[in-house]
Amino acid sequence: ANIVGQFRIQGMTCAACVNSVESVLTGLKGVVRASVALVTETGEVEYDPSLINREEIVEAIEDAGFDAALMD
Length: 72
Ligand code: 9UX
What we know:
It is a single chain. The protein has helices spanning 15-26, 54-63, and strands at 3-10, 31-37, 42-47, 67-71. It is of the alpha+beta class. A hairpin with a 4-residue loop joins β2 (31-37) and β3. The protein is globular. The chain binds dioxo(di-mu-sulfide)dimolybdenum.
């Protein structure tokens, strides 16, 4: 079954940043859906845990130039 994870994403300053992060996330193998919100600095990501894990998702966001952390 897929998992829906909530991530804290900091460093986004405009709508293009949001689109950029969403594109990075949805481009990852195993990510089914990603919705990022600028105001709350959060992202909701649905993923298949047999293909990707939450640490890899955090790393991908950071590689894109933003600060990321898992929210429990
Ligand atoms: Mo535009 Mo958002 O260069 O950081 S993508 S401000």
